[in-house]
Amino acid sequence: QLQLQESGPGLVKPSETLSLTCTVSGDSISSDTYYWGWIRQPPGKGLEWIGSIYHSGSTHYNPSLKSRVTISVDTSKNQFSLKLTSVTAADTAVYFCTSVLGSVFRFHHWGQGSLVTVSS
Amino acid sequence: QSALTQPRSVSGSPGQSVTISCTGTSSDVGRYDYVSWYQQHPGKAPKLLIYDVIKRPSGVSDRFSGSKSGNTASLTISGLQAEDEADYYCNSYAGSYTFVAFGGGTKLTVL
User: Fold this and answer.
1) What pLDDT score was predicted for residue A39?
2) Is B45's CB within 8 Å of A96's CB?
3) Per residue in A63-94, pLDDT tens?
4) For B2, which of A46, A63, A111 is closest by C-beta distance?
5) Would the N or C end of chain B have less CB density within 10 A of its end CB?
6) What mean pLDDT is predicted for residues B102-107?
7) Which residues on chain A place their C-beta less than 8 Å from a C-beta of chain B?
8) pLDDT beyond 90 at B97
9) Which of B99, B106, B107 to mutate to test the interface with A (most CBs of A within 10 A)?
10) Residues A20, A95: contact at Cβ < 8 Å?
């Protein structure tokens, strides 16, 4: 059974960079079946797609976040990562990593989520 | 404001059926058969229920079914159970620029 686990700081200062890592277990991140994605959910609000990556390194980003987002993959560690620069309080959210079935938009397996608060 | 429109809330009694709608445009829901539905209980990660409008992942109950007509997709939950009380989200492929659109979510209350 594919499992994902987010890790990273729970508190980030405004204007700094948010960094999260997702560790995949139960399958290889180089599997041809999946892309890998990040989705966030502000407290009490809905889901927002951040971006998706394939093991080759090919990425797709939400146009509204594209200028601040980098998603990368480390196949040797079976991990993929998210960096979001110049954060503000509006970036406070639970960040989920996901497996994405077949392409960039079918979010299959989910991590438990990691709350990141942006505050000084 | 979410790209896809869902009702804020729906409700039903145990054993009944409920349907949740997800309305987009001819650029997303209406153009592609790539609508997915997710169930999210409080404090938990979402769970994929339906993908590609009508397909169910292994292990998902057949009480959950999906459909689409024009720019509106629908999730139907039959034989409503107390455990179905949750938030439900739809998403759709939205083309090679936007890629992914989500609905704002619908809170299902089991009376």
Assistant:
1) 98
2) yes
3) 999 999 999 999 999 999 999 999 999 999 99
4) A46
5) N
6) 97
7) 46-49, 52, 60, 62-63, 96, 101, 103-108, 110-113
8) no
9) B99
10) yes
Burial, B106: exposed, middle or buried (Cβ in 10 Å; 0-12, 13-18, 19+)? buried
Angle at CA of residue A89, ends B101 and A81, nearest 5°:
60
pLDDT at A103: 84
- Residue ranges in B1-111 assigned as alpha helix (H): 95-98
Instruction: Identify the closest residue of chain A to B53 by CA–CA distance.
Output: A106
Place of tokens 């445009």: B25
- The distance of Cα B110 from the centroid of its chain, to the nearest Å, equals 16
For β-strands A114-118 and A11-12, DSSP reports them as: parallel
3-state secondary structure of B98: helix
Q: How far apart are CA B81 and CA A9, in angstroms?
A: 38
